[in-house]
Every structure is written in structure tokens, then in C-alpha cells.
Amino acid sequence: MRTSQIVPLVVATALFMENTDSTVIATALPAIAQSLNEDPIALKLALTAYLVSLAIFIPISGWMADRFGARTVFRVALGVFMAGSLACAASNSLAGFVAARFFQGLGGAMMVPVGRLVILRSVPKSEIVSALAYLTIPALIGPIFGPPLGGFITTYFDWRWIFFINIPIGIAGIVLSTLYFENIRESERPPLDVLGFLLSGLGLATLMLGLASTGRPLLPEGVSWGCLAAGAILLGLYFRHSRGLANPVIRLDLLRYPTFRAAVTGGSLFRIGTGAIPFLLPLMLQIGFGLDPLRSGLITFAAAAGALLIKLVGPRILRAYGFRRVMLVNALVASAFLAVNGLFTAETPHAIIICVLLIGGCVRSLQFTCVNAIAYAELETREMSAATSLASVAQQLSLSLGVSFGALALEGAAAFHGRTEIVAQDFAPAFLAVALISVMSFFSFRRLNSEAGAEVSGHRLVAAAPRNAMP
């Protein structure tokens, strides 16, 4: 096998572990809440705690890889992630569970971005789309098996056992990276922007904590608003601080590239909408429709199955139609399928729900492939590390916002009808709200040139072939 095939498959072990972990937790969310004597909505803190940790530490993942070597950082990150998994299994309170998820995020912050950086530095630009497809196919197997497996363990055993799934996968990732990774690092490395790291990390953390604690009084209202204000102030100070530096911890100047800017802004809006699905869908099936975790998992896995199917033909679609056209159509179609989730009822045949989730998973996955690939179409090799960190921060921040906005819309729908308990009817406006955010990505992708990313997608070569064949 070529390097463009082996390296993505090794990195996929990390994505497999991370994606399996997130899907089994989402499926087990109501059971975990019951075990910890908490409201299921309060468990959004456990989901966002992981993303808060990512937001803090992802910006220095590129510097860590350049300083200590990508292989070294990747292996240590896998070990930290496994330790966090064991801590989650041992938790007996919401605070302990949230803290364990935060620690787990420290490993995830270094694990996935550094792995993606290894791919970008090892694979030629012309093979990036195919390499990302090799990367995501094994990684998508986790979300396929995760919901049924997590549902089975939660239904017939104990939710704590779901975290032990990560241990053999993490060990395999450490062994494979030792065998096949080069310890890639930059010989000329700028100094770490410590002040920028503190400002950006604390700013993102407090901002997302404030958003996650809005709605039901998980924290005192004054604390929530204080976190939002502090986060905004700290991020404003970081923007001012970064303008005078040659090598800030988050290089916002990379947004000058049209393709990278569209991937970050449009991709973030799209992910805010779709990021709410893993939170809202299991709650709707279990709390709203009364299904047990196993039956819920046997339905929600369909979205991941659809995502896997489209990866097999995604590069061909991009070569035929180009990034811009595919991303514009997908933004509308995927958002429509997101809104349709809110139309399900307890009487809706499960076969119909599975079909809708399957098709929705296909279009969302194709959009993610487009966003991930076009982001690096215009960047130089020396800019890959900083770009990977910024793109990853934007991705995790948008997913966290998706969970927070989805929960807030769900609570708002219940409050509008004078209820304190969530019922099935509250999910329709919640899905509609996040779908409206997702569809706004259309306007970001619309600004792209029709030939944007042609070198990566191969669309220009396909379009030129008939002309070149003419006498």
C-alpha cells in the first residue's frame, strides 16, 4: 500500500476511537443521567466539556507536534484519551463525569489534529481527497457500530462498560503509529505564544461554558452571563494581541485564502446545525418515544451508515461537479433532512426513520468531505500546522454550539408551552431551529469561485478533457 493509504488508516484508529466514544455516550445519555440522578438536559455539560477541552488545547497541537514530533505527541495523546475513558467509567457524579470528559478532551485535542497534520505533510495535494476518504471510512465504522453496541451494553449491562471499548482501540493505535509514522517535526519552529494561548483558551472555554449553562439553571444565572462576558472580552483581547505577532497561537490571517475562509465560516455554520443531532436524536427516541437504548441505537446508526456509503463515491462526485456546486446543493438538501427529523412521531414506522437518517447521513458526509478537503487547497506546506489548528478549533467550537443551541431550543419549546419536562412535541421546533442555522452556510459557499479547489477535486482536469480531445 502507498503512503497515502497507510497513514490515513493509522490515523483512523484515533478517529474510530473518538467517534465510537461520542456515539455510545449519546446513546447512553438518558441512562447516565438516571444513574447520576440528573436531568438528561444537564448532561449537555458532559458533551460540551469535552469540546471545551478541545478548544483550549487544539491551538497548541501543531506547536507540540513541531516541538516533540508528530508520532510522539500522537502516541501520548492516545494514552491520555484512554486514561480519561477509565475516569469516565469510574465517575459517580455529574461533576466527576464532566471533569473526566474534560481530561479525555486533552487527549483528543492532540490526537486527531496531529494525525491529520501527518496526513497533510505526507500526502501530495493531488491525493488529499482520496487520502481523506481512506481516513474517514474506518473512522465512520465506529459511529455505525457505536449506537447499537452502546445501546446493547446500556440496556443489558451497565453504561460504565461502554468506556472500556476505547482501551484495545487505543493500544492498536499506539502500536500502528510506532510502526508506520515518521516523527515529523519542523526544524525551524517559532516560539509558543503563551499569552495568546491563555487568552484564546480561557476565552473559548468560558464562552462555551456560559452558552452550555444557559437555559435551565445548571449554574447561577449571574455566573452564566459572567462567563459569556468574560469569554467575549478575552477573545477580543486575543484578537488585538494576535494582530501584532508574526506567529500567534491561532493564525487568523489564514482566513485571507478564499477557500480556507469558506471552509471555516461555512463549515462552522453547517456543523452548528448538524452538531445538535447526536444530542437531540437519542433524547427524542428514548425520552420522547419511549424506546430503550438498544432500539434507539439500532435506529440512529443509519446516519453513520449513510455517511460511510457516500465516501465510496464522494471523490467521483467532486471530480464531476466541483466543490462549489456540490457544497451549495448539499447545504440546502442536508439542512432540509435535518428539519425533517422533527416531523417524526412515536407512530412513524422505524423503516421510514432509518431511510431518512440514511439519506441525511449521505449528504452531510459529502459536505464534510468537501469542507475538509477544500480548506487546504490554497495553503503552503509551512502553513498546514497553523491551518489545521484553526480549522479544528472552529470545528469543535461549532459542534459545541450545536449541542448548546439544540438544548436551548428544546428547553425553549417546553417553556413556551408551560412545561418543565421535555415531551416529544418539543423536538420539532428544536430541529427546525438548528436546521435554519445550518442552511446559512449556503451563503458562505456561494462566494467561492466556480473553479475553487479544482487542483484538489480534479474537476478542472475532467472539464478540460473533452476540449483536449478535439482535433
Structure characterization notes:
75% of the residues lie in helices and 0% in strands. Helix 2 crosses helix 5, helix 2 (44-57) runs antiparallel to helix 8 and helix 16 (384-416) runs antiparallel to helix 17. The protein folds into two domains: 3-180 and 249-469, Growth Hormone, Chain: A, CATH 1.20.1250; 193-248. It is mainly α and 471 residues long. The two termini are 39 Å apart.
CATH topology of the largest domain: Growth Hormone, Chain: A
* CATH secondary-structure class of the largest domain: Mainly Alpha
Q: State which percent range the strand residues make up.
A: under 5%
**How many distinct helices?**
20
The strand count comes to 0
Outline the low-pLDDT stretches.
462-471
Alpha-carbon distance between the two ends: 39 Å
Shape: globular
The quaternary structure here is: single chain
Structural class: mainly alpha
Q: What is Rg? A: 21 Å
